[in-house]
């Protein structure tokens, strides 16, 4: 049998592509070596937000948060399996390897429990994801050291009833994963230290957001060590000592767990990419605007392509790829991809930061409103933070929106629509917003801009 499409990887990009391809009438097979849902569902986005909802959102008892997380993940994983069955997608459990993509019919070998299976397909889509950047130092293989992409599976960190629970944690990194984990763990009452490679935090965020987060980290009494370099880690009496230096000064940090969450890197080894003829660099697989690689008929989506590593972006990249396979076109606007960070308060953004707008030489105006003036935020007792909007001074077109405050991750969707569709400040501001809601803070920031343009 020759498939219309074979997909390597069953994460958000992979299973979304499979669902969409099935709708197009493509005979589709998906190869997954571990569990459906990928990193996002099994040990990333979903487990983290399950913890977040109980610890920060106070929506569930802490002594049951581990069991709740397991139930949530299991339910969603079964949901993906059901979706694949209903979509008539053949799911093959095993390790896939690219054998030959130089011909019109692509060949992929899959090592399963029952032996090797050879798949032939008109098209191939690669969605194998990413992993925490491995760090090499003496003691890096010691018990108690875990990568950021596996940290949520460590029961000693997240189950308060666990006998040998970790009470102190050091987190290497200052990006989204590091900040989210540090915030939740600190709220659980653990001692948390952030070990940063520079003096930055959330380096891709708008400058005002970064400044606010630094203040919040200090307020939460989370110690940070800037410009830290690990020299070695030793283990004694069940505890770890992280030995390193910062700006020439030696420093030691004791902890029960060390989480390596410096960054994520694309998975590029282990499935035959090196011998395939598909162009890639250490930053990821190279693709065009429709997610097609240098080899015709071979596509790649999600984290393995580098760039912004976001589950929702992977899903829309899958849409772009399948649309192309079906003879249509859908392009993702790189300046309109929302991102969310589940700290306390939440952080969300879309479009250009003020620094990026300045670098591009744009003439823009900024409007900002603080949640302390919003009735719903005050009623919720969640009034810390602000909404910041950037707009082109001449046209009024919205360029970027940055929110730190209650339910920022939900509020950013309206802003994403406005930025993506090139709406003006007046068009959105003159759309009636309900009262009393948090969305009024966004609306009020727009009216601030209208006072200046």
Characterise this structure:
The protein has 453 residues and is α/β, with parallel strands linked by helices. The protein folds into 3 domains: 2-131 and 265-325, FAD/NAD(P)-binding domain; 134-262, FAD/NAD(P)-binding domain, CATH 3.50.50.60; 339-450, FAD/NAD-linked reductase, C-terminal dimerisation domain (Enolase-like, domain 1), CATH 3.30.390. It has helices spanning 12-23, 38-43, 45-55, 65-86, 155-158, 176-187, 207-219, 311-325, 354-359, 375-380, 408-420, 425-429, 439-450; strands at residues 2-3, 5-8, 28-32, 90-93, 95-100, 106-112, 115-121, 124-126, 130-132, 145-147, 168-172, 191-195, 224-225, 228-236, 239-246, 249-255, 257-260, 264-266, 280-281, 284-285, 298-300, 339-341, 346-351, 364-370, 386-392, 398-405. The strands form 7 sheets. It has a 5-stranded parallel β-sheet, covered by helices on one side. Strands 10-17-11-12-13 form a 5-stranded parallel β-sheet, covered by helices on one side. Helix 1 (12-23) packs parallel to helix 8 (311-325) and helix 3 (45-55) runs parallel beside helix 6. The longest helix is centred in the N-terminal third of the chain and has 22 residues, at 65-86. The N and C termini lie far apart (62 Å). The mean pLDDT is 97.
């Amino acid at each position: 049998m020759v498939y219309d499409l074979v997909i390597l990887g069953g994460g958000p990009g992979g299973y979304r592509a499979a669902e969409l391809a099935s709708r197009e009438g493509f005979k589709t097979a998906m190869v997954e070596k571990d569990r459906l849902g990928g990193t996002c569902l099994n040990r990333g986005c979903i487990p983290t937000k399950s913890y977040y909802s109980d610890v920060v959102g106070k929506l569930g008892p802490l002594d049951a948060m581990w069991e709740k997380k397991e139930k949530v993940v299991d339910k969603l994983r079964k949901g993906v399996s059901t979706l694949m069955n209903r979509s008539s997608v053949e799911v093959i459990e095993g390790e896939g390897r690219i054998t030959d993509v130089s011909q019109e019919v692509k060949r992929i070998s899959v090592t399963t429990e029952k032996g090797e299976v050879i798949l032939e397909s008109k098209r191939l889509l690669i969605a194998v994801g990413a992993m925490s950047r491995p760090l090499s130092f003496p003691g890096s293989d010691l018990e108690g050291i875990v990568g950021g992409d596996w940290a949520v599976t460590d029961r000693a960190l997240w189950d308060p009833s666990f006998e040998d629970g970790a009470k102190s944690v050091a987190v290497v990194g200052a990006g989204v994963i590091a900040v989210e984990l540090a915030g939740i763990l600190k709220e659980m009452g653990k001692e948390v230290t952030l070990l940063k490679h520079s003096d930055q935090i959330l380096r891709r965020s708008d400058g005002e957001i970064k400044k606010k987060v630094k203040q919040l980290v200090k307020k939460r009494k989370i110690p940070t060590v800037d410009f830290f370099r690990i020299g070695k880690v030793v283990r004694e009496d069940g505890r770890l000592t992280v030995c390193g230096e910062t700006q020439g000064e030696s420093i030691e940090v004791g902890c029960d767990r060390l989480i390596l969450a410096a960054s994520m890197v694309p998975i590029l080894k282990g499935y035959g990419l090196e011998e395939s003829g598909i162009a890639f660099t250490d930053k990821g697989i190279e693709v065009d605007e429709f997610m097609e690689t240098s080899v015709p008929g071979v596509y790649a989506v999600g984290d393995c392509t580098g760039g912004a590593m976001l589950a929702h972006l992977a899903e829309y990249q899958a849409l772009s790829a399948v649309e192309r396979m079906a003879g249509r076109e859908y392009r993702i606007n790189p300046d309109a991809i929302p991102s969310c960070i589940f700290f306390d308060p939440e952080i969300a953004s879309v479009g250009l930061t003020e620094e990026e707008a300045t670098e591009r030489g744009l003439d823009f105006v900024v409007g900002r409103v603080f949640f302390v003036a919003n009735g719903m935020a005050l009623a919720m007792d969640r009034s810390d933070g602000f909404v910041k909007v950037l707009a082109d001074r001449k046209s009024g077109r919205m360029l970027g929106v940055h929110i730190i405050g209650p339910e920022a991750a939900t509020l950013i969707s309206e802003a994403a629509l406005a930025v993506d569709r090139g709406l003006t400040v007046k068009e959105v501001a003159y759309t009636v917003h309900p009262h009393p809601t948090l969305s009024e803070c966004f609306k009020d920031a727009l009216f601030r801009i209208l006072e200046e343009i």
